[in-house]
Specification:
- The longest helix is centred in the C-terminal third of the chain and has 24 residues.
- The strands form two sheets. An eight-stranded parallel sheet has the order 1-8-7-6-5-4-3-2.
- The chain is globular.
- The protein has 14 helices and ten strands.
- It is of the alpha/beta class and 324 residues long.
- Helix 8 packs across helix 14 and helix 11 runs antiparallel to helix 12.
Length: 324
């Protein structure tokens, strides 16, 4: 396949593994890159910048294909040393960055001076245009189906992807609810030039999470996610489990709640523990509505090969129907 995304990133298929907290580690990133996509290491999964340097070196031992580093920039009273993580990536020779959260504007000049390509992940057309003006090289845009934080506009990919494609000039990558070749074909027809997948890559053999979590994703339907933090205007989509249901119950109780009320349930360490132990109901498991389309747990190579084949078949089938 050849699109502006494959040309920009130097990859065989326009399929990107999104940066996922606790999951974006060398095992998965290398497997995706070796399969022809773009693997992504998640900077803040590592406890400090030096650990990120070590993880980049470990990933490079597993693949000689391009891979990137995700840097998610979030508002915080005690922010992590974002620039030190950026320096660790650039000093280690990483030349593809996925940024997310707030605008990466403050880091763009340094990244560009080092020759890096910046793919910015956002949830609205207005944010995409702002990032484009700031100088990013590509936009990855999350539809409402996505895991993580899909924004507050509640616009699904069927509308958001073509709206963004109409507005931006840089290459567009569709994200949220994509996990099959048909979904990829649809995204391409809507104006995207690549796709970004998170949840679907969690249900692969190389994903560094417990098999019980993978089976929970496999067993879930498209109705088995919950929206949390709605009352805090920081909406997140997660797998339906005991913890997420408790969070929603607290948010909808008379009088509402504060984040402090939710913090014991949603602590990152608790979610990480669930992913590692397989205790599905003991922490948040971030997942998109694509869980309803997960039917197996393949290798990354099997998944990408199948997606590309199914994408081609779907597009050719559509053309035959049109010709008829």
């Amino acid at each position: 396949m050849k699109t502006r995304v494959t040309e920009l990133l130097g990859i065989r298929y326009p399929i990107i593994q999104g940066g996922m907290q606790w999951v974006g580690r060398a095992e998965l990133a290398a497997a995706v890159s070796n399969a022809g996509g773009l693997g992504i290491l998640t900077a803040l999964t590592q406890p400090d910048p030096e650990a990120l340097r070590a993880e980049i070196a470990r990933c490079r031992q597993m693949t000689d294909a391009p891979f990137g580093v995700n840097l998610t920039i979030l508002p915080s009273t005690q922010p992590p040393p974002y620039e030190a993580y950026l320096d660790a990536a650039l000093d280690s020779g990483v030349r593809i960055l996925e940024t997310a959260g707030r605008s990466p504007k403050e880091f763009i000049a340094k990244a560009k001076a080092a020759g890096a390509i910046i793919v910015h992940k956002c949830t609205a057309v207005r944010h995409a245009l702002s990032a484009e003006r700031a100088g990013v090289d590509a936009i990855s845009i999350d539809g409402f189906e996505a895991a993580g934080h899909p924004g507050e506009d509640d616009v699904g990919g069927l509308v958001l992807f073509p709206a963004a494609a109409r507005a931006v000039k840089v290459p567009l990558i569709a994200s949220g609810g994509i996990g099959t070749g048909r979904g990829m074909a649809a995204a391409l027809m809507l104006g995207a030039e690549g796709v970004n997948m998170g949840t679907r890559f969690c249900a692969t053999r190389e994903a560094p999470i417990h098999d019980a979590i993978k089976r929970a994703l496999l067993d879930a339907s498209e109705c088995d996610t919950k929206l949390i933090f709605r009352t805090l205007r920081n909406t997140g989509r997660v797998l339906k489990n005991r913890i997420s249901q408790e969070v929603v119950a607290l948010e909808t109780r008379p009088g509402g709640c504060t984040f402090a009320d939710l913090q014991p349930l949603v602590a990152g360490a608790r979610g990480r523990g669930a992913l590692q132990s397989g205790a599905v109901d003991e922490g948040l498991v971030w997942a998109s509505q694509v869980v309803g389309l997960v039917e197996d747990i393949p290798t990354c190579a099997e998944l990408l090969d199948r997606m590309v084949r199914e994408c081609r078949e779907a597009m050719e089938g559509g053309l035959r129907a049109f010709a008829a």
